[in-house]
Design goal:
Structural class of chain A: alpha+beta
CATH topology of the largest domain in chain A: Ubiquitin-like (UB roll)
Number of domains of chain A: 2
Helix content of chain A: 25-40%
Oligomer: heterodimer
Shape of chain A: globular
Largest sheet of chain A: 5 strands, mixed
Number of strands of chain B: 14
CATH class of the largest domain in chain A: Alpha Beta
CATH class of the largest domain in chain B: Alpha Beta
CATH architecture of the largest domain in chain A: Roll
Strand content of chain B: 25-35%
Number of domains of chain B: 2
Chain lengths: 157, 288
């Protein structure tokens, strides 16, 4: 049984029809055409599908599409302003904080959620905040450095 | 064919649970439910999403203490200053579950009803003397939380019943709790052993009330009356701590698996209980 869902994705009103047992991740990728969020594990362990739902960081693989009715979804596609990259994206490139790139959208969204609540995180706070995101190729140091550099940049220091 | 319902009020939710045919599952955080659906361990006929019910989202002060709604996320518990001050052990247990992504969705009621022997919030809730408000077709009942889990993945709720909130008692002066778990990694792991201690001390730092609970060392979280008896009437001196550790190790009946042997879990249970007691005692203002 499909259900019609009206939601807001990256500031735009979006309507879609989905099956009840279809996850928000599958809806974003297969029905809305936003393939930034990735499926790594599909069980909430790897964070590659991280999106921000009504201001809260979640794994979109553990949210049903129908739950998005009337809510606001932010995905990695909404980070840049047209061709202008978000500071996190710029710093990830500068610090070579990605290799294969599968985990990157999830890390960017998790880092965005962190910096919104904590503009000046310690390294330890960054590592805890990103503990739900797994990377198997670049390693975490470059990612942590990129987030630290972004935080400093966004604070204007 | 699965049906999705998102009622706006508790009575609507209860009516749905009572009338729905087939397998009915409650969706709060979904961090267990959706994983099980995907793995085809469960195939719901009806999913009742309780997150649209305002009272289920709330954490509020009541005449009797604090009430935590069934859809209040563990993350929201960590941001609730008054709750954290009154029940630091319950909050630290809730906040140990999963990542930030999981914290944004998961709930202690879900953790309780899923009834994992290694659940983080259950030992802390039992130590706190928390009760679960259960509503069903026959009305309401308040159950001590340790009456909900009956074994791994099994709970005592009857058809049509749901836990709508966790009720924490009011705090006596000089009371505090603490929760500790052992995991090989610092984050994103499941307790190999865990311990929760809740205690009250008098003005001379003598312990007047104590509850000691262990997790992941039996089919459900277990209270350790011998450890509680060892604490009551004493300060937290070496002899008392040794007696607590000994009583806790003696109470263990753990499984042997790749994450910990029987011997290891038994030994570590005593160590963690001791440290949790020290933490709770210090938080309550205890002085040697």
């Amino acid at each position: 049984m499909t259900q019609l869902v009206n939601t807001q994705i990256n500031g735009d009103a979006v309507g879609f029809a989905c099956e009840i047992d279809e996850t928000l991740l599958d809806v974003l990728r297969n029905r809305v055409g936003l393939s930034g969020a990735k499926e790594g594990c599909g069980t909430g362990d790897c964070g590659a599908c991280s999106v921000i739902l009504d201001g809260t960081l979640v794994c979109s693989c553990l949210v049903l599409g129908v739950e998005a009715e009337g809510r606001k979804v932010e995905t990695v596609e909404g980070l840049s302003d047209g061709a202008d990259l978000h500071p996190l994206q710029t710093k990830f490139i500068e610090h070579a904080a990605l290799q294969c790139g599968i985990c990157t959208p999830g890390f960017l969204m998790a880092a965005k959620a962190l910096l919104k609540n904590n503009p000046d995180p310690t390294e330890e706070e960054i590592r805890y905040a990103l503990a739900g995101n797994l990377c198997r190729c670049t390693g975490y140091d470059k990612i942590v450095r990129a987030v630290q550099a972004t935080a400093a940049d966004m604070r204007g220091s | 064919m699965v049906r999705y319902e998102a009622p706006q009020t508790t009575p609507e939710a209860i009516a749905l649970l009572a009338s729905a045919k087939g397998r009915v599952h409650i969706l709060a955080g979904g961090t267990d439910l959706i994983v099980r659906m995907k793995g085809e361990y469960i195939e719901p006929d009806v999913i009742v999403d309780i997150k649209r019910i305002k009272s289920m989202q709330s954490i509020r002060k009541t005449a009797a203490g604090t009430s935590i709604g069934a859809a209040a996320t563990c993350g929201s518990m960590g941001r609730h200053k008054a709750l954290k001050k009154a029940w630091p052990g319950v909050v630290e247990a809730a906040n140990l579950i999963g990542s930030d992504q999981i914290q944004g969705r998961c709930t202690i009621v879900g953790n309780l009803c899923n009834a994992s022997p290694a659940a983080d919030s259950i030992p802390a809730l039992i130590a706190a003397g928390a009760q679960a408000l259960v509503i069903g077709p026959k009305g309401e009942r308040l159950l001590d939380v340790d009456k909900i889990p009956t074994g791994p993945g099994k709970n005592s709720l009857k058809k049509g019943e749901m836990v709508v909130s966790i009720e924490l008692p009011a705090r006596a002066p000089r009371s505090a709790d603490a929760y500790l778990r052992f995991t090989p990694r610092t984050e994103m792991d499941i307790a190999v052993v865990s311990a929760a201690v809740n205690l009250t001390i008098d003005k001379k730092s003598v312990i007047t009330e104590a509850r000691v609970v262990l997790g992941a060392v039996a089919i459900t979280a277990i209270r350790v009356p011998a450890a509680e008896a060892a604490l009551i009437g004493n300060t937290l001196d070496e002899a008392t701590l040794a007696a607590v550790a000994e009583a806790c190790s003696a109470a263990c009946n753990p499984i042997n698996d790749k994450r910990g042997t029987v011997e290891y879990r038994t030994r570590v249970a005593g160590v963690l209980a001791k440290r949790a007691a020290q933490s709770a005692w210090a938080r309550a203002g205890g002085k040697a």
